[in-house]
């Protein structure tokens, strides 16, 4: 009998380039993620999410003396096992796609992506 493994999660934090609108930047990252999961190696991803900011709290945050938020998108992806993550990252087609996307999203993807543990708590 095998012991179930916890999923492996990674997160990428992407700042919107100054010369790009947030709408355009969001579309570029959506298109990139759709291209990733469309690849044969994309089957290794259990799920992914794009956390795109909205401006619903800007006025409230300003009243609290906090600066306006910068245009940033957080992308999370979950893999059943570390082997699935490895299979995705070593696939030649993903390497080619990511290299091409670096210029398109004006960022070095590897410099802002990391694994994380999800700790959920309710109440105190």
UniProtKB/TrEMBL annotation:
It comes from the Eukaryota. This is Uncharacterized protein. It comes from Mycena rosella. The lineage of its organism: Eukaryota, Fungi, Dikarya, Basidiomycota, Agaricomycotina.
